[in-house]
Write a structure and sequence with these properties.
It is a single chain. This protein is mainly β and 393 residues long. Helix content is 12%, strand content 36%. The protein contains 6 helices and 31 strands. The strands form 9 sheets. Strands 15, 20, 21, 22, 25, 26, 28 and 29 form an 8-stranded antiparallel beta sheet that branches. Strands 10, 16, 17, 23, 27 and 31 form a 6-stranded antiparallel beta sheet that branches. A hairpin with a 6-residue loop joins strand 13 and strand 14. The termini are far apart.
Length: 393
Amino acid sequence: MKRSKLSLAMALLVASLSLTSCIKEEPKNKECDILNAWVQGDELASCFTDKAEMRKSDISSTDKEITFKVRSVMSLPKQLPVYFDVTPGATVEPASGSMQDFTAGPVTYTVTSEDGAWKRQYKVAFVEPVLPSFKFSFENVEVSEKTATGCYYHKFYDIDTQTRQTYYYWDSGNSGAAMTMSGGQPADFPTSSVDNGYQGKGVCLKTVSTGALGEWMKKPIAAGNLFVGKFLVENVLIDPLKCTQFGIPVSVIPIKVTGYYKYLPGDKFTDLNMKEVPGRKDEASIYAVFYRNKDVAGDKVFLYGDDVKDLDHLVENNPNVMKVAQVKQVPSTDQWTRFEMFFEGRDVDREVAAKEGYNLALVFSSSKGGADFEGAIGSRLYIDEVELSFEEK
């Protein structure tokens, strides 16, 4: 009987060792896939137009690229974490959740299988969606006819690449500045073409003195400006803020504006009476407005200089204004620097847009207070390669 119990114990021991041996010898996983990838956090959610884009699920084993679509790469933090689910036992390098810089391009991740014999690389990138756009390079410029004061100034235009038709979308306050200048040449004016743009030619906007006559008229300075719309020179003496009629009809819904700038503020900021304002620094202005061009009665609507003073509250204060985009701060720099601004505001009626029921205004100025004749003589804002991106029709 004892021998029988001993034999049974030995048999159980052998079976146990055999089972353990089988478990140890089970092959390790050879798969090395990323199954899911995601980013998280409210601070990153604002970079996406659609929060669903923050997660990529059920990634195919044949994919080698994982792409997150963001509204702007410029808005991404310099370092951010991406998290991964990988096949059981596999490891990923750099580690899931580690801080990486995606603003310079894709980051390569290597997944290694559990058995260490297999590797797969993935390129993870954050990209902006490809949108239809208009681009303004300011290569087309002409000299005005001789003014009554013997002046000549620059005027900008665009040419349709297909029809070869010429469009004068852009205007400036040059015709008004000519009233106080005598014998001025294009480079003397607040708005002029320059040869050394970001690419090819560019635009120079500078704040200038209007001389003794301008000072006597309580219009001591003229800020360089360039805008989509018309300058109504007949209003210069009557109502200066009604000189700038902003916007032209468009059939697209704008999303963002990008471009390149340089900004060098003048040394001394002065008020309407040419008195220096100690401690105040001149600021440039870059913004755009998208608004209804007819009111409820069917009458034409335009925005003027006095309508756009409070950009932060323009949508809520003006029922015709649908969206506003602005560069809230334009840091001074002597290097060409990219700017980007997004249209924010109300939903737009696509049917109205298709019938050109909205106007688009795009404005640049060397002195933000130039409409009130405040600023710093010598302030210079350079602009080039401006691109307007819009929704698919």
